[in-house]
Amino acid sequence: MYGDFYQKAIHLEEINKSLKIKLLAKIKTRKPINHLVECFRVFLLKNTVRTALKNILVH
After folding, report:
1. I want to staple 56 with a disulfide (CB 3.0 to 4.6 A). Which of 1, 11, 40, 49 is the partner?
2. Residue 23 CA from chain centroid, whole number
3. Domain boundaries defined on the chain
4. In this predicted structure, what is the pLDDT of residue 4?
């Protein structure tokens, strides 16, 4: 039941470093950080972590 969520959680730590760098770049484009976080959360619910990251960075 929680297997999928657990798998996503395992990858979050290694993704954090990359994501912080990418989010800093996004802040420079003046997109509100809360908007990005909310988009990432929505993508994460629908996809795997890798797909969610790809979507948020393209977004």
Report:
1. 40
2. 9
3. 3-58
4. 66
Measured in degrees and rounded to the nearest 5, phi and psi for residue 31 equal -85, 135
Cα dihedral sign for 46, 52, 56, 59? Answer: negative
Contact of 20 with 37, CB cutoff 8 Å: no
Is residue 59 scored above 60 in pLDDT? no
Burial 17-40 (b: 16+ CB within 10 A, else e): eebeeebeebeeeeeeeeebeeeb
Name the packing angle between helices 3-28 and 33-46 (round to 10°).
150
Q: What is the pLDDT of residues 15-53, one digit of tens each?
A: 776 777 676 666 566 556 677 777 777 766 766 677 767
d(CA 45, CA 55): 12
Q: Are the C-beta atoms of 33 and 27 separated by less than 8 Å?
A: yes
